[in-house]
Amino acid sequence: MPKSLYVSRVAHHYWEEPVISGKKGTVAVFFTGCTLDCIYCQNREISHNNLGRKVTIDELAKEVTLLLDKGAESLSFITPSHYTNGIIQLLDIISPTVPVVYNTSGFDSIETLKKLEGYIDIYLPDLKYSNNDLGLKYSNVRNYFDITSKAIEEMVRQTGKPVINQDGIMEKGTMVRNLVLPSHTKNSIEVINYLAEKYGDKILFSLMGQYIPYGDAKNNKKLNRKITKREYEKVLSAFESSGLNGYCQELSSASEKYIPEWDSDVL
Ligand code: SF4
């Protein structure tokens, strides 16, 4: 991505976990670009086809402030890793009173995360795969697990245990997501077991069943379909017996209607 900030959508968003979106929604800033290159990416238009618009930090500060003034439970930066310098400048200008959420692929460097200490209240990373091989195969990066697992360690170090207020809104903590892929229940179960053993109640876990084949995944024999109810229940059962706290999506969330409309300028 270029040095200037590019965003693909700035709007209230209501479909995150209940502790993030609550009733009033989160003010979500979807940045253009991503640190991974997943073959099944449902947001490909913005993550890799550069559908977005250029904004200055002052312009973005005005847009975000206007939305926050209308009411929101939180402020979420989505695929933010390549724009952390801009995010820090933005937060210095707007000083939000709601929790700030860093919603990331999880493929973050420790150096970048350390800069964010004190600015981010909630880390919301994915842990997509339990090993490096799947990271290379499906997300086109080397050392996926090594890098992401270290990044999550740093996130948990910064936030400490999850804190949820009396209104049911998360104020602080790390919540790790895993999207169940078709034919890969073993991978999700390994991720759950790893997180349960390493972190237990120091994190929240969010199991996602919204997979729909997109892009190159449509031509991949293992990934060219939605997950079955049986696959999802198998992973869900591992989650339930793991001792991790958190959330799971309903399988009906595997629908294109939950993909937002993007801002339409192209880089
Ligand atoms: S991490 Fe998410 S947004 Fe980025 S390429 Fe993968 S699926 Fe797409």
Automatic annotation (TrEMBL):
The cofactor note from the UniProt entry for this protein is: Binds 1 [4Fe-4S] cluster. The cluster is coordinated with 3 cysteines and an exchangeable S-adenosyl-L-methionine.
Residues covered by the Radical SAM core domain: 30-158
Concerning Gene3D superfamilies, the annotation shows:
Aldolase class I
Keywords per UniProt: Iron, Iron-sulfur, Metal-binding, S-adenosyl-L-methionine
Annotated [4Fe-4S] cluster binding sites:
C34, C38, C41
Q: Which cofactor does it need?
A: [4Fe-4S] cluster
Q: Mention one GO molecular function.
A: catalytic activity
- Whether Metal-binding counts among this entry's keywords is yes
InterPro entries listed in its UniProt record: Aldolase_TIM (IPR013785), MJ0674-like (IPR040085), Pyrv-formate_lyase-activ_prd (IPR016431), rSAM (IPR007197), rSAM_sf (IPR058240)
* SUPFAM superfamilies assigned: Radical SAM enzymes
Protein name, entry field:
Radical SAM protein
Query: Taxonomic lineage per UniProt?
Result: Bacteria, Bacillati, Bacillota, Clostridia, Eubacteriales
